[in-house]
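Human: My hope is that you can spare some time for a protein that puzzles me. I am handing you a single protein, as its sequence and its fold in token form. Could you go through the record with me and say what the backbone is doing? Take your time, and here it is.
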Amino acid sequence: MKRINLIIILIATSLYAQKFEGLALTPPMGWNSWNKFGCEINEEIIKKMADAMVESGMKDAGYQYIIIDDCWQGERDSLGFIQPDPQRFPSGIKALADYIHSKGLKFGIYSCAGWKTCGGRPGSRGYEFQDAKKYAEWGVDYLKYDWCYTEGLNAEGAYLTMRNALYAAGRPIVFSICEWGNNKPWEWGKNIGHLWRTTGDITNCFDCIVDHGTWKSWGVMQILDMQKGLRAYAGPDHWNDPDMLEVGNGMSVNEDRAHFSMWCMLAAPLIAGNDLSNMSKETIEILTNKEVIDINQDSLGIQGFKYFEKDSIEIWFKPLKKDNWAVCFLNRSKKTHEIKFSWKEHEVIDSIFNKEANFKKTVFNIRDLWKKKNIGTTKDDFVAVIPSHDVILLRLSPIKQH
């Protein structure tokens, strides 16, 4: 009888379940353990990162989530409930979540739709409702849900099951779909998750491919190119996710600045992946530039688009609220380039979101967001020099006509 009642409850939950709305009206901002630490994590490292997020100014800049990635799991107990690795997390996950919440931050965790996680720990397949219940009890605010060991599973169905489980558990949790873009989650993810990965894993390289044999890691420019055609699917509470940030993980300052700028132009989640307790001054300046972050967090939630490309120079535009625009000049080459852009010769039209920048009719003030200064108006041609693997990021604000 108990089993029949449970089945009825699960069916009823499936009929009325939905994702928790309004949890990610702007792209989520936080930190994840994987890019820097991989499986070598423990509760002291995670607490140290939470401390550093506050002390470095990242929390004040808008970062909220501290997310444990793979390898936190131990075994399941006799009832099937997942337990943390007792050596790595001896105090338990709830105590860690409580610590992070005490810092005014939010807590994220990781699991996988398959039998095992990518790191070989117990996955959630067949245990979705039990795992979601446990996450709610622990005080989890964000779930990254991976796609390893998923033989025979339908991706949309698997993520729908976990969405329903999270809803049944009753605690609002941001749901990050991480199936690498293989099954076009942008076509079905809007009502299931708050963000979905569009590609395989990023690596800390500006322009390269790392071949692991059965899979590849992608450089920043490779992932940028993979976003073509996806912007129509993204917006408030449903974001394209080109993977986590590699800022501070070994690229040059120019490359880190370009990487961060392009993720802001893409309205991508800003999930740092470096050692927050050991950052250079330049890394902190990049990750906490509030004017650049404002481009990412703009309430319209419109993803930017490539307007022009020639000789390794790309020009990207992103519509912003109050008829503002972000403009990013990207130099993908290994050489310094001089650019000249005559605003009045261009009419920028975003046909997908019905936005237009007509520089013949409207004059805009120009602010350089990395130099943090105003540099003129669109009455004059824009002339500048862009170093190798770097950007110039501008905000255009219309001047009121009298």
In short: The radius of gyration is 22 Å. Residues 5-9 have pLDDT under 50 and may be disordered.
